[in-house]
Amino acid sequence: MSQIIMETINLNKAFSLGETIYAVNNVNIQLAAGSMNVIVGPSGSGKSTLLSLLGGLDRPMSGDILLQGQSYRALSEDKLALLRRHKLGYVFQFFNLIPHLTALENVMLPLQFVNMPNREAKKRGLELLERVGLSKRSHHLPLQLSGGEQQRVAIARSLANNPAIILADEPTGNLDTKTRDGIVALFQELNQQEGQTFVMVTHDPSLGKFADKIITMKDGTVISQ
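^ thats the sequence. predicted structure below, dont judge the formating
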Protein backbone atom coordinates (compact mmCIF):
# COMPACT_ATOMS: atom_id res chain seq x y z
CA MET A 1 0.00 0.00 0.00
CA SER A 2 1.32 3.45 -0.97
CA GLN A 3 2.30 5.85 1.77
CA ILE A 4 -0.17 8.69 2.36
CA ILE A 5 1.55 12.01 1.65
CA MET A 6 -1.42 14.32 2.31
CA GLU A 7 -4.82 14.00 3.93
CA THR A 8 -7.66 16.21 5.06
CA ILE A 9 -9.65 15.68 8.26
CA ASN A 10 -13.24 16.99 8.35
CA LEU A 11 -12.22 20.04 6.32
CA ASN A 12 -14.68 22.96 6.17
CA LYS A 13 -14.59 26.38 4.52
CA ALA A 14 -17.65 28.64 4.38
CA PHE A 15 -18.41 32.10 3.04
CA SER A 16 -21.13 34.44 4.19
CA LEU A 17 -23.13 35.70 1.20
CA GLY A 18 -26.26 36.78 3.00
CA GLU A 19 -26.41 33.15 4.06
CA THR A 20 -23.60 30.73 4.94
CA ILE A 21 -22.37 28.89 1.85
CA TYR A 22 -20.06 25.91 2.37
CA ALA A 23 -17.48 25.89 -0.43
CA VAL A 24 -15.80 22.90 1.23
CA ASN A 25 -18.07 20.78 3.41
CA ASN A 26 -16.62 18.11 5.72
CA VAL A 27 -14.08 16.86 3.17
CA ASN A 28 -11.95 13.82 3.98
CA ILE A 29 -9.47 12.73 1.31
CA GLN A 30 -6.17 10.86 1.30
CA LEU A 31 -3.51 11.28 -1.39
CA ALA A 32 -0.85 8.63 -1.93
CA ALA A 33 2.79 9.61 -2.43
CA GLY A 34 3.73 9.62 -6.10
CA SER A 35 0.11 9.56 -7.27
CA MET A 36 -1.73 11.55 -9.95
CA ASN A 37 -4.95 13.00 -8.54
CA VAL A 38 -7.66 14.86 -10.43
CA ILE A 39 -10.40 16.91 -8.73
CA VAL A 40 -13.43 17.35 -10.99
CA GLY A 41 -16.84 18.93 -10.63
CA PRO A 42 -19.03 21.68 -12.05
CA SER A 43 -18.24 25.36 -11.62
CA GLY A 44 -18.87 26.39 -8.02
CA SER A 45 -18.45 22.86 -6.65
CA GLY A 46 -15.61 23.94 -4.34
CA LYS A 47 -12.69 22.29 -6.12
CA SER A 48 -10.53 25.44 -6.44
CA THR A 49 -11.28 26.36 -2.81
CA LEU A 50 -10.18 22.87 -1.75
CA LEU A 51 -6.96 23.24 -3.75
CA SER A 52 -6.32 26.63 -2.14
CA LEU A 53 -6.69 25.03 1.30
CA LEU A 54 -4.39 22.13 0.37
CA GLY A 55 -1.82 24.67 -0.81
CA GLY A 56 -1.93 26.63 2.46
CA LEU A 57 -3.03 29.72 0.52
CA ASP A 58 -6.20 29.88 2.61
CA ARG A 59 -7.13 28.67 6.08
CA PRO A 60 -10.08 26.34 6.76
CA MET A 61 -12.92 27.30 9.08
CA SER A 62 -12.49 23.96 10.83
CA GLY A 63 -10.75 20.65 10.30
CA ASP A 64 -7.12 20.07 9.39
CA ILE A 65 -4.70 19.13 6.61
CA LEU A 66 -1.68 16.91 7.14
CA LEU A 67 1.29 17.01 4.75
CA GLN A 68 3.80 14.25 5.48
CA GLY A 69 2.25 14.09 8.94
CA GLN A 70 2.66 17.86 9.56
CA SER A 71 -0.56 19.57 10.71
CA TYR A 72 -1.35 22.87 8.95
CA ARG A 73 -3.48 23.95 11.89
CA ALA A 74 -0.47 23.73 14.22
CA LEU A 75 1.60 26.10 12.05
CA SER A 76 1.97 29.87 12.45
CA GLU A 77 1.63 31.97 9.29
CA ASP A 78 5.43 32.18 9.01
CA LYS A 79 5.87 28.41 9.32
CA LEU A 80 3.04 27.79 6.87
CA ALA A 81 4.82 30.11 4.41
CA LEU A 82 8.00 28.05 4.83
CA LEU A 83 6.06 24.85 4.19
CA ARG A 84 4.59 26.36 1.00
CA ARG A 85 8.03 27.47 -0.12
CA HIS A 86 9.78 24.12 0.40
CA LYS A 87 7.14 21.42 -0.02
CA LEU A 88 4.55 22.73 -2.48
CA GLY A 89 4.64 23.76 -6.13
CA TYR A 90 1.85 25.66 -7.90
CA VAL A 91 0.69 25.78 -11.51
CA PHE A 92 -2.13 28.19 -12.40
CA GLN A 93 -4.54 28.51 -15.34
CA PHE A 94 -3.21 31.96 -16.27
CA PHE A 95 0.49 31.00 -15.89
CA ASN A 96 1.27 33.91 -13.48
CA LEU A 97 4.68 34.56 -15.04
CA ILE A 98 6.43 37.88 -14.35
CA PRO A 99 6.20 39.66 -17.75
CA HIS A 100 9.51 41.55 -17.59
CA LEU A 101 11.52 38.46 -16.58
CA THR A 102 12.83 35.88 -19.05
CA ALA A 103 11.73 32.25 -18.92
CA LEU A 104 14.92 31.40 -17.03
CA GLU A 105 14.51 34.27 -14.56
CA ASN A 106 10.91 33.20 -13.88
CA VAL A 107 12.04 29.66 -13.10
CA MET A 108 14.88 30.94 -10.88
CA LEU A 109 12.54 33.17 -8.83
CA PRO A 110 11.55 30.60 -6.14
CA LEU A 111 15.22 29.73 -5.66
CA GLN A 112 16.01 33.31 -4.69
CA PHE A 113 13.55 33.01 -1.80
CA VAL A 114 15.57 30.13 -0.39
CA ASN A 115 18.83 32.04 -0.88
CA MET A 116 20.32 29.63 -3.41
CA PRO A 117 23.51 31.17 -4.91
CA ASN A 118 22.81 32.72 -8.32
CA ARG A 119 25.15 30.40 -10.22
CA GLU A 120 23.50 27.33 -8.71
CA ALA A 121 20.01 28.75 -9.32
CA LYS A 122 20.83 29.43 -12.97
CA LYS A 123 22.09 25.86 -13.43
CA ARG A 124 18.94 24.47 -11.80
CA GLY A 125 16.73 26.76 -13.90
CA LEU A 126 18.38 25.69 -17.16
CA GLU A 127 18.08 22.02 -16.19
CA LEU A 128 14.36 22.44 -15.54
CA LEU A 129 13.74 24.32 -18.79
CA GLU A 130 15.48 21.49 -20.61
CA ARG A 131 13.29 19.03 -18.68
CA VAL A 132 10.13 20.71 -20.06
CA GLY A 133 11.58 21.05 -23.57
CA LEU A 134 12.32 24.77 -23.51
CA SER A 135 16.11 25.02 -23.22
CA LYS A 136 16.26 27.04 -26.46
CA ARG A 137 13.69 29.58 -25.18
CA SER A 138 15.36 30.39 -21.86
CA HIS A 139 16.03 34.05 -22.71
CA HIS A 140 12.58 34.78 -24.16
CA LEU A 141 10.06 36.92 -22.29
CA PRO A 142 6.60 35.42 -21.61
CA LEU A 143 4.97 37.49 -24.39
CA GLN A 144 7.42 35.93 -26.86
CA LEU A 145 6.18 32.43 -25.93
CA SER A 146 3.02 30.56 -26.91
CA GLY A 147 0.43 29.66 -24.26
CA GLY A 148 1.73 26.10 -24.07
CA GLU A 149 5.31 27.31 -23.72
CA GLN A 150 4.31 29.74 -20.97
CA GLN A 151 2.60 26.90 -19.11
CA ARG A 152 5.75 24.78 -19.46
CA VAL A 153 7.78 27.62 -17.92
CA ALA A 154 5.23 27.75 -15.08
CA ILE A 155 5.61 23.99 -14.58
CA ALA A 156 9.41 24.30 -14.53
CA ARG A 157 9.08 27.07 -11.94
CA SER A 158 6.78 24.90 -9.80
CA LEU A 159 9.49 22.21 -9.73
CA ALA A 160 12.31 24.58 -8.76
CA ASN A 161 12.46 23.67 -5.07
CA ASN A 162 11.78 19.96 -5.71
CA PRO A 163 8.44 20.07 -3.86
CA ALA A 164 6.66 17.03 -2.46
CA ILE A 165 3.39 17.96 -4.20
CA ILE A 166 2.48 19.95 -7.32
CA LEU A 167 -0.94 21.65 -7.12
CA ALA A 168 -2.38 22.65 -10.50
CA ASP A 169 -5.53 24.78 -10.81
CA GLU A 170 -7.11 24.37 -14.28
CA PRO A 171 -3.61 24.13 -15.82
CA THR A 172 -5.01 23.32 -19.27
CA GLY A 173 -8.04 25.62 -19.16
CA ASN A 174 -6.62 28.20 -21.60
CA LEU A 175 -4.97 25.75 -23.99
CA ASP A 176 -6.12 24.11 -27.22
CA THR A 177 -6.61 20.34 -27.26
CA LYS A 178 -3.21 19.47 -28.72
CA THR A 179 -1.33 21.73 -26.30
CA ARG A 180 -3.47 20.45 -23.42
CA ASP A 181 -2.50 16.86 -24.23
CA GLY A 182 1.18 17.86 -24.31
CA ILE A 183 0.95 19.46 -20.85
CA VAL A 184 -0.87 16.44 -19.39
CA ALA A 185 1.74 14.13 -20.95
CA LEU A 186 4.45 16.23 -19.27
CA PHE A 187 2.66 15.89 -15.91
CA GLN A 188 2.50 12.12 -16.42
CA GLU A 189 6.18 11.97 -17.30
CA LEU A 190 7.20 13.96 -14.22
CA ASN A 191 4.88 11.87 -12.07
CA GLN A 192 6.29 8.58 -13.34
CA GLN A 193 9.97 9.50 -13.65
CA GLU A 194 10.43 11.89 -10.72
CA GLY A 195 7.80 10.42 -8.37
CA GLN A 196 6.19 13.85 -8.05
CA THR A 197 2.67 13.82 -6.53
CA PHE A 198 0.16 15.85 -8.55
CA VAL A 199 -3.22 17.29 -7.59
CA MET A 200 -4.99 18.81 -10.57
CA VAL A 201 -8.28 20.69 -10.54
CA THR A 202 -10.13 20.63 -13.84
CA HIS A 203 -13.60 21.09 -15.31
CA ASP A 204 -12.57 18.68 -18.09
CA PRO A 205 -13.65 15.16 -17.05
CA SER A 206 -11.59 13.59 -19.87
CA LEU A 207 -8.43 14.32 -17.84
CA GLY A 208 -9.64 11.75 -15.33
CA LYS A 209 -8.31 8.97 -17.57
CA PHE A 210 -4.76 10.04 -16.61
CA ALA A 211 -5.42 9.85 -12.86
CA ASP A 212 -4.74 7.27 -10.16
CA LYS A 213 -7.56 8.87 -8.18
CA ILE A 214 -10.52 10.99 -9.33
CA ILE A 215 -12.15 13.12 -6.64
CA THR A 216 -15.59 14.36 -7.71
CA MET A 217 -17.08 17.38 -5.94
CA LYS A 218 -20.56 18.88 -5.90
CA ASP A 219 -21.80 21.74 -3.70
CA GLY A 220 -18.63 21.64 -1.57
CA THR A 221 -18.91 17.91 -0.86
CA VAL A 222 -16.82 15.03 -2.17
CA ILE A 223 -19.42 12.73 -3.74
CA SER A 224 -16.96 10.09 -4.97
CA GLN A 225 -13.26 9.29 -4.95
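Helices lie at 47-54, 77-87, 103-113, 118-131, 147-158, 177-194.
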